[in-house]
Amino acid sequence: MTRSVPFPQDEEAVLSLGRALRETGYTFTTVTPATHAHVNARPRNAEARSLRDVFGWSRPFRADLVPEPILRLMRVAGAITEDGPLLRPAIRFSSLDSELFAHSSYPPSATDAVFFGPDTMRFAAAVIAHLEARSRPVRRAVDIGCGSGAAGICIAKRAPGAEVVLVDINPAAMRAARVNARLAGTDGVDVRRSDMLRDVEGQFDLIVSNPPFMIDTAERAYRHGGGPLGAGLSLAVAEQAAERLAPGGSLVLFTGAAIVDGEDPFRAAVAELCGRAGLDWTYSEFDPDEYGEELATAAYDAVERLALVILTVTRPVIQP
User: Fold this and answer.
1) Which of 171, 180, 228, 255 shows a CA-CA span of 20 to 30 A to 115?
2) What are the E-state strand segments in 59-198?
3) pTM reported for the whole predicted model
4) pLDDT tens digits for 224-250?
């Protein structure tokens, strides 16, 4: 299996490639790695026959399949690897919120891969729904562990004039987020290296995050959550938000929760945290049963199901 390239180094070339691809009318809905593997394993899909096959399905292709200007940009960007007599793309583009987002090619096997998939789309939808429902303006927002930058860019599109900060510790993710912000026309988005909020000052009206929440034996940065049953990073985000939310500010956290004997340890920890900090919160299961294949691994031997959850935490406004 070809090892994925986390994200090309030449941001300008990737940006030009994204713009050229968008002009062709290209769109693609990225599926889970498991579905991707099933679909690509079909014999008829061994070789690309379209731009969607190349830039969405990451299938090997013959050079004459891709228009010469796009192929040239791929070469300049370093977004091609050799695969015997064929070429293989080292980047993917996915559709979300009427934009294209660049991210790592399939398979996302590198420890620092920039992941984009159905959870990205669910997370962005939760953030957009929150923005549509809130009555207070967003003046300052941050996306913690931004990855491709999708959620932060969705905020920037809906909160013109707001300071929107995207933070990550993965240099490949920072490159992707910078490219995607410019590709979406949200050039004012500020992409910074920060471990959580440690290198970012001040309070925020909106904090959003979709941190890794799995137990991943390979400890891939986009997937491994650490801590109890993979909840370590999610709890850390909630703890930092409790300290950094402005009055009236909210956290929207999209994550996973391991359910053990009918109980949700992550929810219990959140309840205790918010109670201590005097924060209002809501918690809902977006999907009660996802990633069921993980239950066959030793790490999840005590877990009966993995739920996708949305935690919203708000700091009350104290009236004088």
Assistant:
1) 228
2) 80-83, 86-89, 92-96, 99-103, 140-144, 163-168, 190-193
3) 0.94
4) 788 888 889 999 999 999 999 999 999
